[in-house]
């Protein structure tokens, strides 16, 4: 914890590492929400994210190996021995990640237990120059390192639509939709909203050239955790960002125009897909308009009329459903000028 009395632990000791935030700001109002390190069951959801529903392995070793672990044999190896995320993309789609869980016999030091360990990095929520609240790292982060989750209430499609329709133009939208395609016509949707209950992930700003990538990860439950990993090496005190459209591989502005839906766009009202069939490909596409796993797609869009924790310029009026387009102030050379926009939740079209 910082010895500077201006800073407090935003997580109220719920995280193993304090999440620092300045108590007073002459620019921004201190955020009001309930901090939760993990997803919680919200209105309309029939699944409890805390319920253990996935089978476990019977490994008795210090750390599981693909030669003997049923988890790794079924779902593949996601991390190396240093808990670094491996490259798991095929034909533009990301493979699903399943960690060892509470029913597994392996130890807590198993290399297939990463996201479940929770926050281990020193992060700070701070007031940015143009984009309201943002998050930066206080120490350098190697590529492939787990940074934090995007945790919140897991809600139904109907509740997500109700909340978006009730939003005012000046309100921020935090809802991310994950759509997982596993086989012909098989689509599973998960909607996460950290507006009322959430963690440090709710303060992450959008960038058209982000340094974080989102990967749906399953641990104890079939409900995916939206984990954010370092897509490249990140310097100390650098702002942490991800692409609200769900993408990571940067594309030319012309190819990422705001009207397009990335397989994983996570702009306001956005859907994020993350196919979650165990032996199939789970997609977590997160480049606007791109997909990343062969056969199945995982989308993660956060929705466009929506403002990230603070890219909240009034923007221009979108002709779609009267939604305002929000200007993007990420400053990237490949910036498309507007935050990602997906109207699927508001329009009711799934």
Automatic annotation (TrEMBL):
Annotated region (Disordered), positions in chain: 246-322
SUPFAM superfamilies: SET domain
Compositionally biased tracts (Polar residues): 267-283, 303-321
GO cellular-component term (any): chromosome
Pfam family, one: Pre-SET
InterPro entries registered for this protein in UniProt: H3K9_Histone-Lys_N-MTase, Post-SET_dom, Pre-SET_dom, SET_dom, SET_dom_sf
Top-level division of the source organism's lineage: Eukaryota
Listed PROSITE patterns: POST_SET (PS50868), PRE_SET (PS50867), SET (PS50280)
Residue spans of biased composition, Basic and acidic residues class: 284-302
Protein name from the UniProt record: Histone-lysine N-methyltransferase SETMAR
């Amino acid at each position: 914890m910082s010895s500077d009395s201006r800073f407090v632990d935003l997580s109220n000791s719920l995280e193993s590492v304090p999440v620092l935030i300045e108590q007073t700001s002459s620019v921004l109002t201190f955020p009001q929400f309930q901090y939760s390190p993990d997803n919680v069951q919200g209105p309309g959801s029939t699944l409890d994210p805390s319920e253990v529903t996935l089978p476990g392995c019977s490994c008795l070793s210090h750390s599981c190996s693909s030669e003997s672990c049923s988890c790794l044999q079924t779902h593949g190896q996601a991390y190396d021995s240093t808990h670094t995320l491996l490259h798991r993309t095929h034909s533009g789609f990301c493979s699903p990640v399943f960690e060892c869980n509470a029913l597994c016999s392996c130890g807590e030091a198993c290399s297939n237990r990463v996201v479940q360990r929770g926050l281990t990095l020193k992060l700070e929520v701070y007031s940015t120059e143009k984009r309201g609240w943002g998050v930066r790292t206080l120490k350098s982060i190697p590529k492939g390192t787990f940074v934090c989750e995007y945790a919140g209430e897991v809600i139904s499609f109907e509740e997500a639509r109700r909340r978006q329709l009730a939003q005012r133009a000046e309100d921020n939208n935090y809802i991310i939709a994950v759509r997982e395609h596993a086989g012909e016509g098989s689509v599973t949707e998960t909607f996460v909203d950290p507006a009322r209950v959430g963690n440090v992930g709710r303060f992450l700003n959008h960038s058209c050239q982000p340094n974080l990538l989102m990967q749906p990860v399953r641990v104890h439950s079939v409900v995916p955790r939206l984990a954010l990993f370092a897509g490249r090496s990140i310097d100390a005190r650098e702002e942490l960002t991800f692409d609200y459209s769900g993408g990571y591989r940067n594309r030319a502005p012309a190819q990422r125009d705001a009207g397009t839906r990335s397989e994983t766009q996570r702009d306001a009202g956005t859907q994020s897909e993350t196919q979650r069939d165990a032996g199939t490909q789970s997609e977590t596409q997160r480049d606007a308009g791109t997909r990343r796993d062969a056969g199945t797609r995982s989308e993660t869009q956060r929705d466009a009329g929506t403002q990230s924790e603070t890219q909240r310029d009034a923007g221009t009026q979108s002709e779609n459903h009267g939604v305002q387009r929000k200007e993007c102030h990420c400053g990237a050379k490949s910036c498309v000028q507007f935050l990602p926009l997906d109207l699927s939740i508001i329009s009711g079209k799934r």
